[in-house]
Amino acid sequence: MIIDCHGHYTTAPKQLEEWRKRQIAGLEDARNTPVKGSLGISDDEIRASLEGAQLKLQRERGTDITIFSPRAMGMSHHIGNETTSRHWSEHCNETIHRVCMLYPEKFVGVCQLPQSPGVSPKNCVPELERCVKEFGFIGCNLNPDPSGGYWKEPPLTDKWWYPLYEKMVELEVPAMVHVSASCNPSFHGTGAHYINGDTTAFMQFITADLFRDFPTLKFIIPHGGGAVPYHWGRYRGLAQDMKRPPLKELLMNNVFFDTCVYHQPGIDLLLKVIPADNILFASEMVGAVKGVDPETGFNYDDTKRYIDAIDWVSKADKEKIFHGNVKKVYPRFARTAKRWDRART
Ligand SMILES: [Zn+2]
Q1: What is the per-residue pLDDT for 218?
Q2: Phi, psi dihedral angles at 276 (to 5 degrees)
Q3: Which whole number is the average pLDDT over 285-312?
Q4: Residue 126's Cα: distance from chain center in Å?
Q5: Residue among 161, 201, 159, 207 nearest 179 (CA)
C-alpha cells in the first residue's frame, strides 16, 4: 500500500472560494454580522473536481490513499478575526469530510485549524475534536505563523501552544507544521515562506524541551523538512554547542519529514541523511509545483518515481516510507481504515 501523507483540496468547486470572497468582502462593513451560511456544492460537483485531478494522478502514479486537507494557501489565518477563521475552517473541513465520505478508500481527512493571530490556540480545540470524533480525521495542519510571514506568535515550543498539544495527545493526532499564504512581500509563498516555516519549526524544536513535556506529541515537517536535511550537520552542531542532547534523542521520536522534494538529488539526500523511520511518503499533489520537468519528462511532484529509482534503500525501509511510518505517526489511520472495512461488509 502506498499512502501519500500530504495532499490538499486545491481543486475544490468554485463555490468554496466564492463563499470566502463574500466573507472577506463582508469584513469591510462593520455593521455586518458574520454568518456561516452554506456552500451549495453538490456531490457530483465534488466528484467532478477530483476525478480529473487527484484521483487520476493517484491511478497514474500508483498511490492508494491520500491524507487530505484543505488548501494550505487558502487557510490565510491572517484574514479577519477568530470568527472569520472559525466559519472558514468549518466549511473547509466539512468539504474534506464530504470528499472522504464519497471516496473512503482514496482519502482520509486532516483538518485546518481556526487559528487567528494573537488568539490562544485553545480556540482550535473544539474544531479539532469535532473533526476527529465526528468526521474520523486523523491529524491537523498547524500554522506556526498565523500572521502570514511576520512571525508574531511565540515559538512552537512555548506554553502558548500547550492547550492544543494536550488535546492532540489525548486524541492521538499529529500535526503537519504548515504555514499558509505570505503577506510579506519579501517572502514568496511556496518558494520561500513554506520552506522558511519548515526550517524555523525544526530549529525551534531543538531549543526547548517540548518533547520532554509531551513524549508522544508528533509533528510532520513537510516539503522534505525545508532546509533541514541539507544542513543536518549544522543542526547537529548547533544542538551540541547549545549543550542540547543529540538530535536522535531530542526529537527523532517526535519529528518526521515528508518526501515533497521535487528532484532526484534532493530525494537521494533526504534518504541518505534522515533515518527511514522518520520519513513519510508524500507528493503534495495537486499542489504548488504542477509542471513537467523538461530534464526528465515527468511531473516535478511525481515523487514516487524518485524513490522507486533508488536501489540502495532496502525494501523494508521503502515500506516504512510508503506506509509503515504513517501507521506509527497517525495512530488513527488504522482505526479509520478498519471502520471502512466494517462499513463495506
Ligand atoms: Zn502542503
Answers
A1: 98
A2: -55, -25
A3: 95
A4: 19
A5: 201
Position 226 pLDDT exceeds 70? yes
Cell 486545491 appears where?
10
The confidence score (pLDDT) of residue 122 equals 98
178 touches 227 (CB < 8 A): no
Expressed in angstroms and rounded, the spacing between residue 219 Cα and the centre of ligand 1 is: 14
CA of 273 to the centre of ligand 1 (A): 22
In sign, the C-alpha dihedral spanning 267, 268, 272, 276 is positive
Query: Which position among 94, 127, 153, 284 bears the catalytic label?
Result: 284
pLDDT at residue 32, rounded to an integer = 86
Ligand 1 geometric centre to CA of 80 (Å): 22
Question: Contact, 298 vs 305, CB < 8 A?
Answer: yes
Q: Where are the domains of the chain?
A: 3-344
All residues at 6 or more sequence positions from 72 whose CB lies less than 8 Å from its CB, including other chains:
8, 141, 178, 179, 180
C-alpha cell at 172: 492521538
| Residue 343 confidence (pLDDT) | 57
pLDDT for 287 equals: 86
> Tens digits of per-residue pLDDT, 162-182?
999 999 999 999 999 999 999
pLDDT in tens, 249-285: 999 999 999 999 999 999 999 999 999 999 999 999 9
* Burial bucket for residue 340 (CB in 10 Å: 0-12, 13-18, 19+): middle
* Residue 60 bears catalytic tag: no
Q: How many angstroms is it from 222 CA to the middle of ligand 1?
A: 7
3-344 maps to which CATH number?
3.20.20.140
Return the C-alpha torsion angle 311, 315, 321, 323, nearest 10: 140
Confidence grade of residue 344 (pLDDT, cut at 50, 70, 90): low
Direct distance between the N- and C-terminal alpha carbons of the chain, in angstroms, rounded to an integer? 21
pTM given for the model: 0.96
Q: Look at the chain and count its residues.
A: 345
Per-residue CA distances from 240 to 206, 210, 225, 230 (Å): 10, 18, 20, 18
